[in-house]
Write a structure and sequence with these properties.
Blueprint (H helix, E strand, L loop, with lengths): L5 H12 L2 E3 L13 E3 L1 H19 L5 E2 L5 E3 H6 L2 H4 L1 E6 L6 E3 H9 L10 H10 L16 E4 L3 E2 L10 E3 L4 H6 L1 H7 L6 E10 L14 E11 L6 H7 L6 E5 L10 E4 H6 L6 H17 L7 E5 L11 E9 L3 E12 L1 H10 L5 E2 L6 E2 L2 E8 H12 E4 L2 E4 L10 E5 L6 H14 L4 E3 L5 H10 L4 E5 L1 H6 L1 E6 L5 E5 L3 H9 L10
Parallel strand pairs: 3-10, 12-14, 22-23, 22-24
Antiparallel strand pairs: 1-2, 4-9, 5-6, 5-7, 8-9, 10-11, 11-19, 12-13, 14-15, 15-16, 16-19, 17-18, 20-21, 24-25, 25-26
Helix pairs in contact: 9-11
The structure holds zinc ion (ZN).
Zinc ion binds next to loops.
């Protein structure tokens, strides 16, 4: 069913119908890549994903959501290690001076998809020389040595600043870590204490690519669980209990070669020590369930890839990427799940000289909490929703999105522009808006074309006013996926639409 080529079709559809498009390019052809505009449909979908995340994660897990600035002092990133460690390896063509990310240059020249992040400069250089890799721009084989390129955008804040003294944050984490002590006291916290942030982050990628997959400005949904390393499980023992037999899908480091995915129950993860403690195991379960059951990604397309030395972020003791598979893009990371220990807090304590420790409930210990962080890349999630929803059958193209994620929930049409049908349809449209639905009214073109336009943006339900409506007060309700239609009384429409869109009822069960 899923064919190669979906990627191009999704990008074309998204641009044409107003989900997203590259920023400024329409007017300024040379505008830098990696920045995107969200049009009305994409923005609405993005908001829906965020609100589902709040409903399923933030509220039930007792997360304190905060919002910290995009610009933070450079000191913060000295303490977090980003100044020193947050770079990509870059190589320059000696002839035309084009610069490339070393791993991408090798991957693309040799047509391989291996992960090269763990290799040293010498090993990378050896691959380039031995394979005679040429500059993709001018064909030269003369390269400079490999250099580090820091991915942070730095800025000089204030009229007096001569040198950069701040940076656009490359992750929301540092805002939460720096504000941990203040938040903890303000909210009379006890451990585990959880902060959450929805925010924009900025990375000066050497080669942004693949639409929303690798951008220079993007959005994260981050959870920051601060906990007592001597007592991580108190709360989570009980929380995990109902899910002990739930199977988490892992690509362990030892299975890297074969690509074999191991399904490990939460119990096995704990007993073998692989998932470290109840707290981390619980969050691994929660996020796999969220992506599968709420965002609708099929289980067989999801896995947690264990990162190995060299790939792991500089701050992480254990690190899994929750990835999704598509035929076009292969496995792509959607959630970065890192056990950061007290790396961040102790860095800030050292650099600032402030005591950031907390006291144990019995008053006997002072210690730095540890941090576990699942961090969602929101734009990638949205993009993969579209990739996995894309369907075509001859002329017909439709997005089989989970109904409640559709940017337009219900469209209302008059069959013809006469006999009072438009007036009746507009009345129904206004009624549905006031009932809280995201509704859309359309009377232009043939009814077939109007259905097709709605299919293409994933609208799950279309309501049509026809001659019979004027006689008996019923309308047709059409299902996007099966194209089946049923007749529904106007006054029953809101309740029936609710069970169709939000509860996943079959259209036949609405009768
Ligand atoms: Zn060149």
């Amino acid at each position: 069913m899923k064919m190669k080529g979906t990627y191009d079709k999704v990008v074309e559809l998204a641009t044409r119908r107003g989900f997203f498009w590259p920023s400024s390019r329409d007017v300024y052809a040379g505008a830098p890549a990696g920045f995107y505009v969200y049009g009305p449909l994409g923005l609405r979908m993005k908001e829906k994903i965020v609100s589902l995340w709040r409903r399923e994660v933030v509220f039930p897990e007792g997360v304190h959501e905060i919002e910290t600035p995009n610009i933070l002092p450079l000191k913060v990133f000295e303490a977090s290690g980003h100044l020193e460690h947050f770079f990509d390896k870059l190589i320059e063509c000696k002839r035309c001076h084009s610069r490339f990310r070393v791993d991408k240059l090798i991957e693309e020249s040799l047509g391989i998809e291996e992960n090269l992040e763990g290799l040293s400069d010498e090993e990378l250089m050896k691959i380039i020389v031995e394979n005679g890799i040429k500059c993709p721009k001018c064909g030269s084989k003369e390269w400079t040595g490999i250099k580090k390129f820091n991915l942070m955008f730095t800025l000089a804040v204030g009229a007096e600043a001569e040198e950069p003294n701040a940076a656009l944050r490359p992750e929301t984490t540092q805002g939460s870590v720096v504000e941990f002590r203040k938040s903890y006291m303000t909210m009379r916290g006890k451990l585990p204490f959880i902060l959450g942030q929805v925010g924009r982050v900025f990375r000066n990628e050497i080669s942004p690519r693949r639409a929303l997959i690798r951008m220079r400005e993007f959005q994260q949904l981050e959870i920051h669980v601060f906990f007592d390393p001597d007592n991580p499980d108190e709360v989570y023992r009980e929380k995990l209990e109902p899910y002990m037999d739930y199977k988490i899908r892992f690509l362990r480091r030892e299975d890297r070669e074969t690509g074999r995915i191991v399904e490990m129950t939460a119990r096995e993860g704990l007993e073998t020590g692989y998932t470290i403690n109840h707290l981390i195991t619980y969050w691994l379960v929660l996020y796999q369930k969220f992506f599968n059951e709420v965002l609708g990604f099929p289980l067989e397309r999801l896995r947690y890839r264990e990162l190995i030395e060299g790939e792991k972020a500089h701050y992480a003791l254990a690190h899994w990427d929750l990835e999704v598979y598509t035929e076009d893009l292969g496995w792509v990371e959607l959630v970065n799940n890192a056990y950061r220990t007290d790396y961040d807090l102790s860095g800030h304590m050292k650099v600032s000289g402030n005591d950031l420790r907390v006291t144990s409930p019995d008053g006997k210990r002072k210690f730095l909490p540890h941090l576990y962080e699942p961090s969602i890349g929101l734009d990638r999630v949205l993009f993969h929703e579209l990739m996995l929803a894309y369907r075509e059958d001859g002329e017909r193209v439709w997005l089989q999105l989970p109904r409640y994620l559709a940017p337009i929930e219900v469209a209302v049409f008059p069959l013809m522009k006469k006999d009072g049908m438009p007036e009746k349809a507009k009345e129904i449209y206004r009624m549905l808006i006031s009932e809280g639905f995201i509704a859309f009214y359309d009377e232009s073109g043939t009814i077939g074309r109007r259905y097709r336009r709605m299919d293409e943006v994933g609208t799950p339900a279309c309501v049509t006013v026809d001659h019979q409506t004027m006689e008996d007060g019923t309308v047709t309700l059409r299902d996007r996926d099966t194209m089946e239609q049923v007749r529904v009384r106007i006054e029953e429409l809101p309740a029936k639409l609710r069970s169709f869109i939000y509860e996943g009822k079959d259209i036949k069960d609405l009768l």
